[in-house]
Amino acid sequence: MTTIAIIQARMASSRLPGKVLKTLGGAPVLARVVRAATSIRTVDKVIVATSTSPADDAIETWCSENGVASYRGSEEDVLRRYCDVAANEDADVVLRLTADCPLIDPSVCEQVLALLQRTNADYACNTDPPTWPDGLDCWAVTRAALERAGREATRPSDREHVLSFIRNHRNAFQCEILRCPLPDLTAERWTLDTPKDFEFLSALVEQLPPDVEVPGYLEVLRALDSAPELRKINADSQRNE
């Protein structure tokens, strides 16, 4: 069985333009996501999927210069982008990640993939309902389910958000949810969407162990518990705003 991780990346952002290539703790945000994705032991290949918009030329250039596989497809039809990559790679399972989650935890991704496989599900995620910190989001889907969504989804929102068609048709797909074993973590915000998020993450990575290239979520929690004032930086942001 071939499992690929597809990282969805765009330069455009209404609140923080160019966020995926901003330098965070000495490395571009996208580099951190790629590094984490390649650390997922059950993933065979990592591909960055961006759009054909000229604004995203910088993402393709960065990938080329750093030996990272990339694909460019429709700007609006992101679901088609994913289906194309899955077909090109002859993948059996696709793990969807987004480039605005620089602290994605490989061990959590492995659990989502294991949940998909061990339950013979069509789709598994850790976001619905949200029980994990915002910024650890990951979704796993079989190629068969992804391609069915690609054939049947017609609403623009379902084409843009990739897997919302499956979530909205749970009667037609077997869906599984990985819930966080620790309580009360949904208020934690480790994603990158606003200038305040970037300020928060820049301060946070300075608190993380310098010898750990890909910190797990427990290490991030320990760093925040030792410097709880950091949480105030982006405390006024809302999840999935």
Strand content: 15-25%
Work out the number of β strands. Answer: 9
Q: What topology, given as strand order, has the largest sheet?
A: 5-4-1-6-8-7-9
- In terms of per-residue confidence, which ranges show pLDDT below 50 for 5 or more consecutive residues? none
Work out the radius of gyration: 17 Å
Overall 3D geometry?
globular
| Structure class | alpha/beta
- Separation of the first and last Cα atoms: 36 Å
Return the average pLDDT rounded to an integer: 96
- Write down the secondary-structure element order: EEEHEHEHEHEEHHHEHH
Helical amount among residues, as a percent range?
Answer: 25-40%
The number of helical elements comes to: 9
Largest sheet: 7 strands, mixed
Description:
This protein has 241 residues and is an alpha/beta fold. α2 (57-65) links the parallel β4 and β5 (69-73). The protein has helices spanning 29-38, 57-65, 78-88, 106-118, 143-152, 156-160, 164-167, 195-205, 217-226, and strands at 3-8, 23-24, 27-28, 45-51, 69-73, 93-98, 123-125, 139-142, 175-177.
